[in-house]
């Protein structure tokens, strides 16, 4: 059985983020896992089946689970920001700020994750695990890079994707890609980075700053450059898979066998490529769930069993 609580915590740059905290019923625990959702229109509140299935498996192993909407949830979303921590008449002063994946920068995940870590520590949790799904897996790698002395004990990367490569494939050529990146950089330097890109660049809602963040081959987002490797493109000047390869903590990488965002829509191929990148390092383990897609639909319980078995 589970206890479920709607929670709110502040990031280290003072945003208020909502989440769900699942705790084992009648069982005290000092262990908790943090779940990071992916990009796009994602929200943990719209993935109830997966949340409950994972939480049930974690509860059986005496582990609490925190799922929260990070600043990149939804395409465009207004969130509260703390402007004055002094309470006046029982109220903390807040202001509305606009985020969502249309404006998000991946490096800001450090603020979100540290906020979640601080929240759980205040609840008395001592042993913390970090799970990232899809672009959330990229964020785990980015967080580990920028916060190498963090409190996380183990990482779980679920269906990590090549967002930068996806944008390149949509755009279709190097010349167009670097032309669009130049335009985006100019907008950012002019202080107009939050302006939305025109449809000829990308036919979805995204700002120039977020487009540049995701599509830049030398940027933080380019964590799993499968397209660049397989097609020998060398779009970036920096080492490929650099953040992933530099992880030193125990890390489990999981793909669905039929992950439609993996190279050649194969989680097996994705794992093979990643395993080659860290050949000789014993802190990584790679698993594929048979017949599962990118979101592990219908395989949520099996995913939970796999993760908790590895954590145990």
Can you characterise this structure?
The structure is a single chain. With about 300 residues, the protein is an alpha/beta fold. It has helices at about 50-60, 110-120, 135-145, 165-170, 175-190, 210-215, 225-230, 240-245, 265-275, 300-310; strands spanning about 1-10, 15-25, 30-35, 65-70, 75-90, 90-100, 125-135, 150-160, 250-255, 285-290. Helix 1 runs parallel beside helix 10 and helix 5 (about 175-190) crosses helix 6. The protein starts with a strand and ends with a helix. About 45% of the residues are buried.
Order of helix and strand elements from N to C terminus: EEEHEEEHEHEHHHHHEHEH
| Biggest sheet layout | 8 strands, mixed
CATH top level class name of the largest domain:
Alpha Beta
Global shape: globular
For this structure, what is the CATH homologous superfamily of the largest domain? Alpha/Beta hydrolase fold, catalytic domain
How many structural domains? Answer: 2
Q: Tally of extended strands?
A: 10
The overall pLDDT average reads 94
Strand arrangement, major sheet = 1-2-4-3-7-8-9-10
End-to-end Cα distance, whole Å, is 19 Å
The number of helical runs is 10
Rg of Cα set: 19 Å
Low-pLDDT runs of 5+ residues are none
Q: What is the strand content?
A: 15-25%
CATH architecture of the largest domain: 3-Layer(aba) Sandwich
Share of helical residues: 25-40%
The CATH topology of the largest domain is what? Rossmann fold
| Helix-strand makeup class | alpha/beta
Defining key terms:
312 residues, alpha/beta, Rossmann fold, eight-stranded mixed beta sheet, two-stranded antiparallel sheet, globular
């Amino acid at each position: 059985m589970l206890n479920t609580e709607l929670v709110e915590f502040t990031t280290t740059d003072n945003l208020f983020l909502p989440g769900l905290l699942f705790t084992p019923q009648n069982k005290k625990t000092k262990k908790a896992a943090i779940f990071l959702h992916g990009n796009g229109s994602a929200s943990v509140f719209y993935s109830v089946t997966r949340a409950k299935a994972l939480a049930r498996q974690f509860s059986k192993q005496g582990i609490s689970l925190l799922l929260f909407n990070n600043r990149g949830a939804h395409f465009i979303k207004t969130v509260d920001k703390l402007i004055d921590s002094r309470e006046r008449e029982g109220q903390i002063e807040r202001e509305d700020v606009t985020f969502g994946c249309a404006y998000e920068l991946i490096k800001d995940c450090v603020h979100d994750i540290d906020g979640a870590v601080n929240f759980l520590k205040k609840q008395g949790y001592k042993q913390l695990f970090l799970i990232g799904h899809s672009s959330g897996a990229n964020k785990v790698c980015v967080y580990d890079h920028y916060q190498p002395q963090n409190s996380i004990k183990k990482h779980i990367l679920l269906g990590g994707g090549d967002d930068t490569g996806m944008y390149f494939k949509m755009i279709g050529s190097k010349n167009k890609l670097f032309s669009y990146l130049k335009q985006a950089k100019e907008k950012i330097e002019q202080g107009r980075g939050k302006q939305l890109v025109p449809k000829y660049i990308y036919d979805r809602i995204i700002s120039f700053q977020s487009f540049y963040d995701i599509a830049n081959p030398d940027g933080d987002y380019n964590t799993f450059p499968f397209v660049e490797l397989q097609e020998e493109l060398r779009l970036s000047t920096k080492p490929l898979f650099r953040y992933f390869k530099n992880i030193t903590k125990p890390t489990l990488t999981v793909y669905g066998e039929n992950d439609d965002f993996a190279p050649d829509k194969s989680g097996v191929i994705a794992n093979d490529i990643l395993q080659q990148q860290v050949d000789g390092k014993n802190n990584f383990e790679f698993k594929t769930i048979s017949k599962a897609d990118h979101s592990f639909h219908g395989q949520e319980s099996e995913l939970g069993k796999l993760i908790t078995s590895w954590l145990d």
